[in-house]
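Late entry, evening session. Most of the bench is empty. Finally got around to the prediction I had been postponing all week. Sequence below, unchanged from the version circulated by S.P.
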Amino acid sequence: MLLSFIIPAYNVEKYIVACLDSCLAQGIDDMEVIVVDDGSTDRTPVLLDEYTKQHRNVKAVRQVNQGQSVARNRAIEMATGDYIYMVDADDQMMDDYVLPIDIMRSGKYDIIGLQVMYQLEDGTRRPWSHQMERWPFDQEYATGAEFVRSHNIEGLVYGYLFKRSLFTEHPELRFTPGIYHQDEELIFKLFTLAGPVVYKRGYAYLYFEHSGSSINTHTEARKRKLMDDTLGIIEMLVKWSDEHNLQDVMRYKLSYLSMDVLRVLIRKQHDVDYALQCIEKLRQLELYPLPWINECKYLAVKFLTCSKTLVTWWIRHSQFSKKVGF
């Protein structure tokens, strides 16, 4: 088997058919599509049953609701392909894109980076980030660590084809249940262990904005959990860095994650006392004040957040912060 699509699914009756069709449309003979239904209460199980009967390479299992991370981990254990591609059930593969089959068949790379398109609810499409437009396409890196030493990789599982051997050789590396941004933690660890890496030009994946999704639910409790989980991931990555002597390799990514913490504290109008607690956590991890990285965007945030007094001023004047694009 060349490729395993793995798809966690929960109450996605509106989207799962289009998602499955887009994966099957890749037309790869030796591929499988593995769906783990995470205790759906709508018609998702019925639709999956229909597809498994119609397509021998579609496999579906059902479990009690345990969250996306557990569903993904189970699918990883089931996969038999040389490469794994992780897809969300409410998204699709781009209809005019074919995955780099020849490159996968060569088995040369542990990680193959792909571009992601973002579709707003009004149908407007844009690249997931400007960073994806500036990646060093087709340039081979001997190791993933070599790449992350100087590039801020995207924490999106659907932005990469992963060689399955990364998971079989490192069974301790799986998605952490119950947290947001679990992609960020796992992807970065996989990169530090990976051999050859390459990025290919071409938008492979279409991410849909859904106003009702958990990622777009803006409550105070969710804001706090997002930030707490982000700080937890940073702490886990610092520990990983120390355990594997990767301080030089991980400096760039940890610095940018810390910058994002400060930016979000201001942008999302977090409570000042809570923001100060977060800054203290970064200080304990030796990530505040921000380390030195010679890039304009980063240096601007470093200057604007160089003291707690300035951070609290920006939070209290968050409307001004938004006007200046902070």
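Two things to note before I forget:
The longest strand covers residues 197-208.
The mean pLDDT is 93.
Will write this up properly tomorrow.
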